[in-house]
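Mods, move this if it's the wrong board.
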Amino acid sequence: MTGPSHEQAIDALVERFFAFFDNRDGAVPRLADLASCFADKATIARRSGAGTELYTFGEFAAPRIDLLTRGALRDVHEWESAATTHVFDGIATRTSRYAKAGLLEGKPYGGSGTKCFLFVEVEAGWRIASVVWVDDAA
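Not the wrong board. Structure tokens:
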């Protein structure tokens, strides 16, 4: 195999995913950047005390673009703090611990949680087929 290893390619993909959730220093998150991380028909879910919310890519992305670009959520960034990745012939899993920090409505905002990714290798490279997350209890 030439080029980056599968794990290096997945690391770069996850870095692009988390980079979307960063509007520090005037950065403007672009929908196309986030969309390029996902496979067609990807599924997204959030687990909380209220249950599980399932999203299409559009249902997930639209409100986050709004929050990140309209001023309610400022100087925010989200980053991966630890991860375990397993690669199998054309599919991969990754469990990520993450943290986030910024200002929401002018007040300090932050937290941490776990994201579980399922990746598929398609002609264009590795893409997210599914991501599920849960925030840690405050």
